[in-house]
Design brief:
single chain; 330 residues; alpha/beta; Rossmann fold; five-stranded parallel sheet; 13 helices; 45% helix; binds coenzyme A
């Protein structure tokens, strides 16, 4: 069974409510119908009702039975504005600002998740990563004990000898441009949790990547990764993690054995932590485009799940991301 099929099966086992703020966007409307029909989640579409229904008509999609909420006319908007004001007044948000903000589909959707009216949110077919991330970071905030929100890419590689039957978890490829050593340590711990919860990797083996393996090069960039490894050991003593190591030492058993002798991770890593966003973002795209891997992005560390799509996403990408989000919410 593929990773996506496995996730869909899990999503169907407990129906979660997932809000789609881009309700008047054609791919989102079509995805909502599939999500409902396959029982992956209860989708809620946000937007002007007429605009949503028009998209349904134009795409030949029957969305009977799918809830549509217009933030401009919703009777919950006042309540959400009050709560948003309380949450953000210390940051200078006035009551008027809050009332205006919740008219925006993204803030309205985030408030639905914050208040428990929805279990998770998926957007990004139209909005940028930052458009969704900023309100999510401001309002939903991080899980208890976690300071940093980051992302994991679940890479399903054609070479099934790699990682966990071809599955590799890459982090962080979306959020933190230049994490400190402490932040990098947290990214590694969150990615291991994602690997367990979403990929069925019961024993994550976490490699902190660098251009150096076990001190083979000396540079402040290498020192940062070494410090992250030490911090991660301190924060999660039972987690199987190691570094710093090069990509080949992490994945190829013979190279791992020669460059990082005795390492419990080298040569067998299934979770790869990149030192910064440039490396992570480039790395996942190389694996996808040249390596032929299928990939799915999830955000990790938020108190409740919100996930981002690429603006070039397909209907299937939206359906799959909703399934991942539902499983995160369960
Ligand atoms: C994540 C991101 C949107 C934050 O935006 P920002 O404008 O820097 O946001 P701010 O610094 O004003 O922070 C907003 C709030 O989020 C919090 N925050 C920012 N990054 C955070 C993180 N990674 N984890 C937890 N909280 C975070 C801040 O503490 C702040 O909280 P507060 O308002 O309650 O004090 C920004 O880091 C970003 O654009 N990252 C790259 C995203 C991207 O373009 N990726 C491309 C690959 S697809």
């Amino acid at each position: 069974m593929s990773m996506v099929d496995d996730i869909k099966k899990k999503a169907q086992s407990k129906l979660m409510t997932i809000v789609l703020p881009e309700g008047d966007e054609p791919r989102t409307v079509q995805a909502a119908k599939i999500i409902k029909d396959e029982g992956l989640a209860k989708p809620v579409l946000l937007g002007n009702k007429e605009a949503v229904l028009n998209q349904a008509k134009e795409t030949g999609t029957d969305i009977t039975g799918i809830e549509i909420i217009d933030p401009l006319t919703s009777n919950k908007a006042k309540e959400y504005a009050g709560q948003l004001y309380e949450l953000r007044k210390a940051k200078g948000v006035t009551e008027e600002d809050a009332a205006k903000l919740v008219q925006d589909v993204m803030y309205y959707g985030i408030m639905m998740v914050k208040t428990g009216d929805a279990d998770g949110l998926v957007s990004g077919a139209v909005h940028t990563t930052g458009d969704m991330l900023r309100p999510a970071l401001q309002i939903i905030k991080t899980k208890p004990g976690i300071k940093v929100v980051s992302s994991s890419f679940l890479m399903d590689c054609p070479n099934k000898n790699l990682g966990h039957n071809g599955l590799l978890v890459y982090a962080d490829c979306v959020v933190m441009p230049n994490p400190t050593a402490d932040e990098l340590a947290e990214i590694g711990i969150s990615a291991a949790d994602t690997a367990k919860r979403l990929c069925g990797i019961d024993e994550p083996k976490v490699a902190f990547l660098s251009f150096s393996t076990k001190g083979s090069a000396k540079h402040e960039l290498v020192t940062k990764v070494q410090q992250a490894v030490a911090k991660a050991h301190e924060l999660a003593p039972d987690l199987c993690l190691d570094g710093e190591m090069q990509f080949d030492a992490a994945l190829v058993p013979e190279i791992g054995a020669s460059k990082a002798k005795g390492s419990p991770v080298a040569g067998h890593a299934n979770v790869l932590i990149f030192p910064d966003l440039q490396a992570g973002n480039i790395g996942y795209k190389i694996t996808q485009r040249i390596g032929g891997a299928e990939c799915f992005a999830v955000l990790q560390g938020l108190a409740k799940p919100c996930n981002d799509l690429s603006r070039g996403c397909s209907v299937d990408d939206i359906v799959n991301t909703v399934a991942f989000t539902a499983v995160q919410a369960q």
